[in-house]
Amino acid sequence: MKKALIIQGGWDGHEPVLVSKRFAGYLKEEGFDVDISDTLDCLADVNALMELDLLVFCWSMGEINHEYVQNLSKAVGSGVGMAGCHGGMCDSFRLDTEWQFITGGQYTHSNAELGNGNERGVSTLHIGDSHVGYADLDFGTFGSNEITISIFSLGPEPFDFEIWEGMPESGGEFLLKAHYDKGTVWNKYLPATYKLPKRLKGITTICFVFDFKLHVGGFVFEKLEKAFEKLYLAENDFIYGDSYVLMSHAVEHIGNNVTIGSIDMDFSDKGASSVEICWRSCRKNSFQVQITDTGNITTSTMIETDPSKDYISSVFPLVQNAKGMCSVSLIFLPGCDIDIEWIRFV
Length: 346
Known about the structure:
Blueprint: E1 2-10, H1 16-29, E2 32-37, H2 46-50, E3 54-60, H3 66-77, E4 81-84, H4 87-90, H5 97-103, E5 115-116, E6 122-123, E7 127-138, E8 144-153, E9 159-165, E10 173-180, E11 190-200, E12 203-212, E13 214-221, E14 231-232, E15 238-240, E16 245-246, E17 251-254, E18 259-266, E19 272-281, E20 285-293, E21 298-305, E22 308-322, E23 325-332, E24 338-345
Parallel strand pairs: 1-2, 1-3, 3-4
Antiparallel strand pairs: 5-6, 6-13, 7-12, 8-11, 8-13, 9-10, 9-12, 14-24, 15-18, 16-17, 17-24, 18-23, 19-22, 19-24, 20-21, 20-23
């Protein structure tokens, strides 16, 4: 028999006990074995949650232990169904960002009281600016600069909106004026993809600013594969040695006994057979590209570059394909004097 757990509580104005009783009746008619809990502590056991077929929430507002939300996320991710209605799910636990993403129906920061949009989206104001903010997003150490946002526009005309890191009213950084020209299909969210001027990294906040009525269905960032992206040398994970100059993107005048490296380079099973390097120098230079795997086995490839007064790039074969999780080090030999802007494994 299929098993369902209904969790009731929170603000009495949404009548959680009566709604839970009605839901339980519907589910029993459909052949479910139904339990009702009036405490969130039922979310403490992730293994018990994963044995369920369905979780139903009738809990408005309130607060929740974030560990419980993580357990819920694992259960839903494993295939457990999740249901609810109105404020009994999409107006629960407003301060927990991960809950907001699981339900898809809220935001964490705004300059105004915004409404619920279609399909658990966010509905902006008819008049005036609407700041739709999401806090505590973890982009990891490498980050992402490509976002796809789903919008249900109420009219066919193109429009612009703003994307910020942080909240505009709290010292946030303006990132992009985005142009939306997908038109409208009634009651349907249409995705649009934008490239940000920088990668968002670490734990941060993102905010969208709209100046008229529409619905925001959600957004997703493209996960970048660090091992195969263009890595600007100035964004290294570690650097040490006798002489070098850090610029905005490049590391210039790299001299004797300098080591520059990156960690958490996941080459996966497909691996990399070559490295592309962008450099300039008034002389020939020799340096090593060392790749170390999780078993602490290191392979070294000697790179020799010709003089060039302007930045140029070339592809150099590796002595052995890089696979799996590795760290990468560029080790510069005595006599080097070279500027390197970026490297990329292919």
